[in-house]
Amino acid sequence: MAAAQDFVYTPVNPAFGGNTYNYSWLMSSADAQKKQPSSSTSSALDLFNQSQTSLSDFTNNLNSQILNQLSSRILQDQFGNFSLQNGQYNIGNYQIDIKQGTQGIDINILDTQTGGQSSVTIPNQ
Predict the structure, then answer these.
(1) Which candidate, 93, 89, 64, places its Cα nearest to that of 78?
(2) Which H or E element spans position 47?
(3) What's the rounded Cα separation, in Å, for the pair 27 and 81?
(4) What sign does the CA torsion over 36, 37, 40, 43 have?
(5) Model confidence over 49-82: pLDDT tens digits?
(6) What's the domain of life for this entry (predicted)?
(7) Which residues, 6+ apart, have CB-to-CB distance to 30 below 8 Å?
(8) Is residue 122 within 8 Å of residue 107, measured between CB atoms?
């Protein structure tokens, strides 16, 4: 005589229909498997990395300020005292469309390299 029973599969992960009480166990198990930074790294290496980060931050900040000054001068040369004129302007990888809208001046900026877009409206005074 043979005996048999129905086979029923129950998933463990609650995201796939498993018991919701398994969530904390799964999360703690995953967290335990994360690689932890080695505590044997020397403090000289840490100081070097901090120095490199500070130097990199300084360089990025300086580059941003220079680009900001350049763009301000280009805008000043192009538009005078920032009196924006309707039209389309191409500056580097950017296509800038300026037009008078119902709410004010609409500025649409398109990055021709990535396709990213941004819109700005300067309200009427």
Answers:
(1) 89
(2) helix 43-79
(3) 58
(4) negative
(5) 666 677 788 888 887 787 777 767 766 665 566 5
(6) Bacteria
(7) none
(8) yes
The C-alpha R_g of the chain, in whole angstroms, comes to: 29
Token code pair at residue 77: 């040369």
Residues 22, 12: Cα–Cα separation, whole Å: 7
Angstrom CA distances, 66 to 55, 60, 69, 78, 80, stand at: 16, 10, 5, 18, 20
Number of residues that make up the chain? 125
**Dihedrals phi, psi of 13, to nearest 5 degrees:** -70, 125
Mapping DSSP to helix (H, G, I), strand (E, B) and coil, where does residue 16 land?
Answer: helix
- Give the list of residues 6+ apart from residue 96 with CB closer than 8 angstroms, or none: 88, 89, 90, 107, 108, 109, 110
d(CA 25, CA 13): 10
Report the predicted TM-score, pTM, of the whole model to 2 decimal places.
Answer: 0.38
- The Cα–Cα gap between 109 and 54 comes to 32
Look up tokens 């300086």; give the residue. 62
